[in-house]
Amino acid sequence: MTEPRRDPQHTEANATAARDLAVAALYGEIRRIARNLMREERSNHTLAPTALANEAWLRLFGDGPLTFANDGEFLAAAVSALRRVLVEHGRRRAAHKRGGGRIEPLLQPDQVHAPVADERLLALEEALTQLAEFDPGKAKLVELRFFGGMSVDEAARVLGLSPRTVARDWRVAQAFLNARLRGSDDLDD
Above 70 in pLDDT, residue 113? Predict the structure, then answer.
Protein backbone atom coordinates (compact mmCIF):
# COMPACT_ATOMS: atom_id res chain seq x y z
CA MET A 1 0.00 0.00 0.00
CA THR A 2 1.39 3.35 -0.98
CA GLU A 3 1.32 6.30 1.35
CA PRO A 4 -0.81 9.25 0.20
CA ARG A 5 1.16 12.14 -1.22
CA ARG A 6 0.90 15.40 0.64
CA ASP A 7 0.68 18.60 -1.28
CA PRO A 8 3.28 20.95 0.31
CA GLN A 9 1.29 24.03 -0.77
CA HIS A 10 -1.88 22.67 0.86
CA THR A 11 -0.03 21.93 4.13
CA GLU A 12 1.58 25.39 4.12
CA ALA A 13 -1.79 27.02 3.47
CA ASN A 14 -3.30 25.14 6.44
CA ALA A 15 -0.44 26.24 8.68
CA THR A 16 -0.84 29.85 7.55
CA ALA A 17 -4.60 29.77 8.16
CA ALA A 18 -4.09 28.26 11.63
CA ARG A 19 -1.49 30.91 12.46
CA ASP A 20 -3.82 33.68 11.26
CA LEU A 21 -6.61 32.34 13.48
CA ALA A 22 -4.28 32.20 16.49
CA VAL A 23 -3.10 35.76 15.89
CA ALA A 24 -6.68 36.98 15.60
CA ALA A 25 -7.57 35.26 18.86
CA LEU A 26 -4.58 36.82 20.65
CA TYR A 27 -5.37 40.27 19.32
CA GLY A 28 -9.03 39.81 20.26
CA GLU A 29 -8.01 39.03 23.83
CA ILE A 30 -5.84 42.17 24.03
CA ARG A 31 -8.73 44.26 22.67
CA ARG A 32 -11.12 42.74 25.23
CA ILE A 33 -8.81 43.66 28.11
CA ALA A 34 -8.22 47.14 26.67
CA ARG A 35 -11.98 47.71 26.32
CA ASN A 36 -12.52 46.66 29.92
CA LEU A 37 -9.75 48.96 31.10
CA MET A 38 -11.00 51.94 29.14
CA ARG A 39 -14.67 51.36 30.03
CA GLU A 40 -13.86 52.58 33.55
CA GLU A 41 -11.82 55.59 32.46
CA ARG A 42 -13.07 59.14 32.17
CA SER A 43 -15.24 59.81 29.13
CA ASN A 44 -12.84 62.37 27.65
CA HIS A 45 -9.78 60.09 27.89
CA THR A 46 -7.51 60.74 24.93
CA LEU A 47 -6.57 57.08 24.53
CA ALA A 48 -9.16 54.88 22.79
CA PRO A 49 -9.40 51.13 23.51
CA THR A 50 -8.32 50.25 19.97
CA ALA A 51 -5.28 52.54 20.19
CA LEU A 52 -4.39 51.02 23.56
CA ALA A 53 -4.73 47.50 22.14
CA ASN A 54 -2.71 48.37 19.03
CA GLU A 55 0.12 49.90 21.04
CA ALA A 56 0.22 46.91 23.40
CA TRP A 57 0.23 44.55 20.40
CA LEU A 58 3.18 46.39 18.89
CA ARG A 59 5.04 46.17 22.20
CA LEU A 60 4.44 42.44 22.36
CA PHE A 61 4.96 41.47 18.73
CA GLY A 62 6.57 44.49 17.04
CA ASP A 63 10.02 42.92 16.91
CA GLY A 64 8.77 39.61 15.59
CA PRO A 65 6.76 36.64 16.73
CA LEU A 66 6.90 35.59 20.37
CA THR A 67 5.93 32.27 21.80
CA PHE A 68 4.15 31.74 25.09
CA ALA A 69 4.09 28.53 27.09
CA ASN A 70 0.36 28.86 27.75
CA ASP A 71 -2.60 31.25 27.73
CA GLY A 72 -1.77 32.50 31.21
CA GLU A 73 1.73 33.54 30.17
CA PHE A 74 0.27 35.41 27.19
CA LEU A 75 -2.37 37.16 29.33
CA ALA A 76 0.24 38.23 31.87
CA ALA A 77 2.45 39.66 29.09
CA ALA A 78 -0.55 41.41 27.47
CA VAL A 79 -1.63 43.01 30.75
CA SER A 80 1.96 44.19 31.36
CA ALA A 81 2.08 45.75 27.90
CA LEU A 82 -1.28 47.46 28.41
CA ARG A 83 -0.12 48.79 31.79
CA ARG A 84 3.07 50.22 30.28
CA VAL A 85 1.08 51.98 27.56
CA LEU A 86 -1.34 53.50 30.10
CA VAL A 87 1.48 54.62 32.39
CA GLU A 88 3.47 56.22 29.58
CA HIS A 89 0.32 57.95 28.35
CA GLY A 90 -0.27 59.23 31.88
CA ARG A 91 3.32 60.46 32.17
CA ARG A 92 3.01 62.42 28.95
CA ARG A 93 -0.24 64.03 30.09
CA ALA A 94 1.08 64.73 33.58
CA ALA A 95 4.10 66.47 32.11
CA HIS A 96 1.65 69.10 30.86
CA LYS A 97 -0.15 69.53 34.16
CA ARG A 98 0.68 70.25 37.75
CA GLY A 99 -0.44 67.67 40.25
CA GLY A 100 -0.72 67.93 43.99
CA GLY A 101 -2.71 67.17 47.05
CA ARG A 102 -3.05 64.05 49.11
CA ILE A 103 -3.32 60.77 47.23
CA GLU A 104 -6.23 58.62 48.38
CA PRO A 105 -5.82 54.84 48.46
CA LEU A 106 -6.35 53.35 45.02
CA LEU A 107 -6.90 49.75 45.99
CA GLN A 108 -10.00 49.20 48.06
CA PRO A 109 -10.73 45.68 49.41
CA ASP A 110 -13.35 44.77 46.78
CA GLN A 111 -11.98 46.91 43.98
CA VAL A 112 -10.36 45.44 40.93
CA HIS A 113 -10.20 48.25 38.38
CA ALA A 114 -11.49 51.77 38.76
CA PRO A 115 -10.94 55.05 36.92
CA VAL A 116 -7.61 56.57 37.84
CA ALA A 117 -6.41 60.10 37.19
CA ASP A 118 -3.08 60.35 35.39
CA GLU A 119 -1.29 61.63 38.51
CA ARG A 120 -2.70 58.79 40.60
CA LEU A 121 -1.76 56.26 37.92
CA LEU A 122 1.82 57.52 38.02
CA ALA A 123 1.86 57.28 41.82
CA LEU A 124 0.51 53.74 41.57
CA GLU A 125 3.19 52.90 39.00
CA GLU A 126 5.91 54.12 41.36
CA ALA A 127 4.45 52.14 44.26
CA LEU A 128 4.05 49.07 42.02
CA THR A 129 7.71 49.34 41.02
CA GLN A 130 8.63 49.34 44.72
CA LEU A 131 6.41 46.30 45.27
CA ALA A 132 8.09 44.52 42.34
CA GLU A 133 11.47 45.05 44.01
CA PHE A 134 10.07 43.63 47.24
CA ASP A 135 7.94 40.83 45.76
CA PRO A 136 7.65 40.44 41.96
CA GLY A 137 4.86 37.85 42.28
CA LYS A 138 2.60 40.24 44.17
CA ALA A 139 3.35 43.00 41.64
CA LYS A 140 2.32 40.64 38.81
CA LEU A 141 -0.87 39.86 40.75
CA VAL A 142 -1.69 43.59 41.00
CA GLU A 143 -1.16 43.93 37.25
CA LEU A 144 -3.51 41.06 36.53
CA ARG A 145 -6.23 42.15 38.96
CA PHE A 146 -6.05 45.95 38.77
CA PHE A 147 -4.99 46.50 35.18
CA GLY A 148 -6.24 43.22 33.70
CA GLY A 149 -9.52 43.18 35.62
CA MET A 150 -9.11 39.51 36.48
CA SER A 151 -10.96 37.82 39.31
CA VAL A 152 -9.12 35.97 42.07
CA ASP A 153 -9.83 32.67 40.31
CA GLU A 154 -8.64 33.93 36.92
CA ALA A 155 -5.44 35.38 38.40
CA ALA A 156 -4.87 32.15 40.32
CA ARG A 157 -5.09 30.17 37.08
CA VAL A 158 -2.69 32.51 35.27
CA LEU A 159 -0.19 32.53 38.14
CA GLY A 160 -0.50 28.82 38.88
CA LEU A 161 -1.51 29.48 42.50
CA SER A 162 -4.50 28.54 44.61
CA PRO A 163 -7.32 31.10 44.84
CA ARG A 164 -6.77 31.22 48.59
CA THR A 165 -3.10 32.18 48.13
CA VAL A 166 -4.04 34.79 45.52
CA ALA A 167 -6.68 36.30 47.83
CA ARG A 168 -4.13 36.53 50.65
CA ASP A 169 -1.43 37.96 48.37
CA TRP A 170 -3.96 40.49 47.00
CA ARG A 171 -4.66 41.78 50.54
CA VAL A 172 -0.92 42.06 51.27
CA ALA A 173 -0.27 43.85 47.95
CA GLN A 174 -3.14 46.28 48.60
CA ALA A 175 -1.78 47.11 52.04
CA PHE A 176 1.73 47.61 50.68
CA LEU A 177 0.61 49.86 47.82
CA ASN A 178 -1.85 51.88 49.88
CA ALA A 179 0.84 52.50 52.51
CA ARG A 180 3.23 53.68 49.80
CA LEU A 181 0.57 55.87 48.22
CA ARG A 182 -0.08 57.53 51.58
CA GLY A 183 3.65 58.14 52.00
CA SER A 184 3.92 55.66 54.86
CA ASP A 185 7.01 53.59 55.38
CA ASP A 186 5.34 51.26 57.87
CA LEU A 187 6.00 48.24 55.71
CA ASP A 188 9.77 48.76 55.45
CA ASP A 189 10.40 46.63 58.58
Answer: no
